[in-house]
Design a protein that fits this description.
Oligomer: single chain
Helix content: 55-70%
Largest sheet: none
Radius of gyration: 19 Å
């Protein structure tokens, strides 16, 4: 977590989670009109508590982005016993949770505000989202890809390039359409189908043939 936060990379407490969810709710309802006063009122806590936990507004925003990004998982696997089925399951888990997160009202609101703030330089939210969203999620999945390569299941030279390819296959044009107001409706079944298709396409590109 950025230096502005007091909870670092530890899992937030139940009470802190409620505060971070309150931040996301306010972003959905009020856009970028987010103040520590408004968060304190919504979360029924004092501003002193917010400053104690998060130090400042950037710290609160960093913790919020990390909390939202923590919902994206890469699955559980045993590297020494990794096979195609386990690798595929881990990749599908990542793709399913990521699609669920980016299509949520909270993430759409958060990313819209981050884009606007980055353009106007109103706040550091754009760089916070990049560091604790996209880049952190990449760092979470690359070890899975590298384990697949080590097990002889994948072939690629650079894990960042492989990750970006997979990221693109999963996301396609979904996020930009959502950010621009397209009323795409994603139910759980469709998300699972899209995730499975992305994994199949990725393995077609990078999978090693059976010997």
């Amino acid at each position: 977590m950025a230096a502005g936060s007091a909870i670092h990379d530890a899992t937030p407490s139940i009470r802190q989670q409620a505060v971070l969810d309150a931040v996301l709710d306010l972003m959905v309802e009020e856009g970028d009109q987010l103040t520590m006063d408004a968060v304190a009122r919504r979360a029924s806590c004092s501003k002193e508590t917010l400053y104690k936990w998060f130090r400042d507004r950037d710290g609160l925003l960093t913790a919020t982005v990390q909390w939202q990004a923590s919902r994206v998982r890469a699955g559980q696997y045993e590297a020494r016993a990794l096979d195609v089925a386990a690798l595929s399951e881990s990749l599908r888990d990542f793709a399913t949770t990521w699609l669920g997160v980016i299509s949520s009202r909270a993430s759409i609101a958060l990313n819209r505000i981050a884009i606007g703030d980055a353009a106007s330089r109103k706040s550091n939210l754009g760089s916070i989202v990049l560091a604790n969203g996209r880049f952190a999620i990449g760092d979470r999945l690359k070890p899975v890809l590298e384990a697949g390569r080590a097990a002889g299941l994948l072939a690629f030279d650079d894990s960042e390039t492989a990750f970006r390819t997979f990221f693109g296959l999963v996301g396609r044009d979904v996020q930009i359409r959502l950010l621009l107001g397209d009323a795409i409706v994603f139910d759980a079944a469709e998300i699972r189908r899209d995730a499975a298709r992305a994994v199949e396409q990725f393995l077609a590109l990078y999978g090693q043939p059976k010997r």
